[in-house]
Design brief:
Blueprint lengths: L1 H19 L8 H13 L5 H12 L7 H14 L9 H14 L7 H14 L4 H12 L6 H13 L7 H15 L7 H12 L5 E4 L3 E6 L8 H6 L12 E7 L13 H10 L4 E6 H4 L7 H12 L5 E2 L5 E2 L13
Parallel strand pairs: 3-4
Antiparallel strand pairs: 1-2, 2-3, 5-6
Helix pairs in contact: 2-3, 2-4, 3-5, 4-5, 4-6, 6-7, 6-8, 6-12, 8-9, 10-14
Protein name: RAP domain-containing protein
Length: about 325
């Protein structure tokens, strides 16, 4: 399966290179809309191409269909572009103007409405459309598909101003709980991290019920989290003894293909986890730089990442005390 994935990735790379050599003036608007969607699906965040594509479809916004506008906004959310960076000003302008156009459109497709709500939750954009669409969904919530209910529940959780009936909320929550309770299997990378934590004497739970890769509670016997504990500010529902860490391993599917930009669904997950957890992320491109046989180096890395103040003793002369992570120029930073 891994070999097939590599072949597919190589094919996708070749196709994108071919696209970038095209004269965009020779393409129809339909072609451009399809290209924008393909960049989202392919996790390709090429600013030069995407800015040009979004600028071209912006000129035709008045004639665009609901599907075309929503798919463009969905691509922006999936790639997490046009949010807080200056590279994607055309994307940001398109999303803002596209939402204004959509206010005068009649949504008749469940998938498009859900995708728009989900996208705006990721982009953290407030729009009256969200409330309108939620009211429409509430009227026929018994017919909504399971996956769509989960997406709606995520958005509902992140938007405290939204009000829905108890029946609709319960229906969404039941579907979300069912999803969280699905059987999960730890990947090899998760098991490597778990084994390293065992060597460090840190108690933890793998694949915790709240869809957490590695769950750590900052209470005895995990008494070595002096620095981390001070960083976590308890919420109204959390006292000092409830402080928890969600240690998340981010594999390649959490990032764009060429720039390691975190994808929208990753931001969404961690925004949801942050209600109950202090989230600490391990990017695959950092973890995989450490040789599989270098267990002491892995422990040093996690010691710095988790900010544990307990001295690691590997031998009489080889010990490791906590210090801040460096700039990442080498794997030893």
């Amino acid at each position: 399966m891994e070999d097939r994935s590599k072949i597919l990735a190589s094919t996708v790379d070749t196709l994108f290179l071919k696209i970038e050599s095209l004269n965009l003036n020779d393409l129809t608007l339909k072609d451009i809309y399809m290209l924008i969607s393909s960049y989202g699906t392919g996790r390709n965040d090429n600013p030069r191409i995407l800015e040009t594509l979004f600028n071209k479809v912006y000129e035709d916004l008045g004639n665009a269909s609901i599907e075309e506008i929503v798919n463009c906004i969905y691509t922006s959310a999936r790639l997490y572009i046009g949010v807080n960076d200056d590279e994607y000003t055309n994307v940001k302008i398109y999303v803002e103007r596209g939402l204004e156009v959509l206010k005068f459109k009649d949504f008749g497709d469940e998938q498009l409405g859900v995708n728009l709500i989900w996208s705006l939750s990721i982009l953290k954009i407030e729009s009256s459309l969200v409330e309108i669409l939620f009211k429409n969904f509430e009227e026929g919530f018994e017919e909504i598909k399971g996956m769509h209910l989960r997406q709606l529940y995520q958005s509902y959780t992140l938007n405290p101003s939204l009000k829905v009936s108890n029946e609709f909320e319960i229906r969404m929550e039941k579907e979300w709980i069912k999803e969280k309770r699905r059987e999960k299997k730890s990947s090899n990378k998760h098991l490597e991290i778990s084994k390293t934590l065992d060597l460090m004497g840190i108690k933890h739970v793998n694949e915790f019920e709240e869809d957490v890769d590695v769950h750590i509670t900052l209470t005895s016997p995990n008494s070595a989290f002096k620095y981390t504990r001070d960083l976590i500010k308890p919420t109204e529902d959390m006292n000092d003894g409830d402080k928890k860490i969600a240690l998340e391993f981010d594999g390649p599917s959490h990032f764009t293909r060429y720039s390691n930009r975190s994808l929208g669904h990753t931001h969404l997950k961690y925004n949801l986890l942050s209600f109950s957890y202090y989230v600490i992320r391990i990017p695959y491109y950092v973890w995989e730089r450490i040789p599989f046989w270098a267990s002491m180096e892995r422990q040093r890395y996690l010691q710095r990442l988790l900010m544990t103040d307990e001295v690691l003793v590997f031998s009489g002369k080889d010990v490791s005390e906590y210090k801040k992570l460096g700039g990442g120029v080498t794997r030893f930073d």
